[in-house]
Amino acid sequence: MPTTNFSPTDSMHGGATAAREPLDGDWNRMPEPKDGIPYRWGDHERRWSLNKDILSTTLGAERSSLYSLYHSKGIYENQRATSTRKRVVNLTRSSYAGQQRYGTIVWNGDTHASWASFRQQIPAGLNYMATGNPYWTVDVGSFFTKNDGRWFYLGEFPDGVKDDAYKEYYTRMFQWGTFLPMLRSHGSDTPREIWRFGEPGTRFYDAILRMINLRYTLIPYIYSMAARQTLHDYTMARLLAFDFPDDPNVFDIKDQYMFGNIMVCPVTVPEAKSRKVYLPHSSSSEKWTDYWSGTVYEGGGWIDIETPIDRLPLFVRGGSLIPTAQPTEYADAQIGSPITINVYPGRDSEFEFYEDEGDNYNYESGSYTTIRISWNDRKRILTLNAQKGSYPGMPTSRKITIKTPWGERSVNYNGKKTSIRI
């Protein structure tokens, strides 16, 4: 969004603001009844028991569990009753089954900055998204960076961005967060702006900027996956077992996952020069392309991959089509811009490229476009099928570049079926 009117509040925006124009988003930091239990208590079981008793007495056991669901429902339904010009975006830290229908993005709460915590958050998020709630995120850099003795305030970096050890931790988390449904940096104790991590040309600054640019490069892919989640019950970030159920080696891998057709392998230990990566296989065999180097590997084994500070190991599954655009300062600046279709050969494949106005609910009445992109692996032919649908302001033609290991070709696509042999 070119501008953002985002409300970090504990409740729905109200009064004159709601009547004038809905907010771009709500940040509901506490969508649960206030517990009233002093933070100084370190007995977690006793804290849980007292909270349960307070909530059950106040709301009843069932209603207290459902509080987050109805809180989100109230925001969603009332904003939509006010206006359909803005999609409901509700960043919230509590969830319940079915809450995804109300425009919620859940983050994992106020975590502390430690490598052990980082490692735990990856499988926690994947398990959460496997429940049918596909939008999940974190505080990149973790919320608490210091340790002040309280049971929840257990950060291991008291000097924050003054400490290169924290800069490394933050950079590695930022790399992981780049491949979550929502990327966000937030926390206490220390600044998080990119310029706090060095000057252009220094390693942490450049590594973070590389991920920012990569995120924007992938916006066409991510937005199309988001549409697939809404229209076709997809999940963009998935446990490996979802895609490779016949490969038992993936069942207990906690630090690799699929983001679309990109396998993400976060670096979760300090000063890592390399990490082991497992390349899954399926009954039809599998090829994997290193996103950075272009090296192709066969699936079904482990490899060691170098992990300099500016590189997150990424592998693209053979038979993938990844649409990208040039990075911009904000997502709407990409509207109508040239698109590159990155072809990763290995099998026949298809991808549905999706576009709409970028906001409002007109897509619910069919105001959007799709282009089915097909790849014939044996003949090396990419087909841009006829564009379906329309929306106000849609581009009537655009430059599309097809990038493959054998070279590139560009066409001016005007919505009619076009096939390109590479």
Structure description:
It is a single chain. The protein is α+β, with helices and mostly antiparallel strands and 422 residues long. The protein has helices at 15-20, 44-59, 61-65, 67-82, 115-129, 164-177, 203-217, 219-232, 240-243; strands at 6-7, 25-28, 90-92, 104-107, 136-137, 237-239, 257-259, 262-264, 274-279, 287-290, 296-298, 301-306, 314-317, 320-324, 339-344, 349-355, 369-376, 381-384, 388-389, 398-404, 407-413, 418-421. The protein folds into 3 domains: 1-107, no CATH class; 222-317, Sandwich (Immunoglobulin-like), CATH 2.60.40; 320-421, Sandwich (Immunoglobulin-like), CATH 2.60.40.1180. The strands form 5 sheets. Strands 6-7-8-13-10-11 form a 6-stranded antiparallel β-sheet. Strands 1-2-3-4-5 form a 5-stranded parallel β-sheet. Strand 4 (104-107), helix 5 and strand 5 form a beta-alpha-beta unit.
Distance between the termini: 36 Å
SS elements, strand count: 22
* Beta-strand percentage range: 15-25%
SSE class: alpha+beta
Taken together, the total number of domains comes to 3
| Spatial strand sequence of the major β-sheet | 6-7-8-13-10-11
* Helical percentage: 10-25%
Inertia-based shape: globular
Largest sheet: 6 strands, antiparallel
> Helix count?
9
Mean pLDDT: 90
Low-confidence stretches: 1-19
Q: Rg to the nearest angstrom?
A: 23 Å
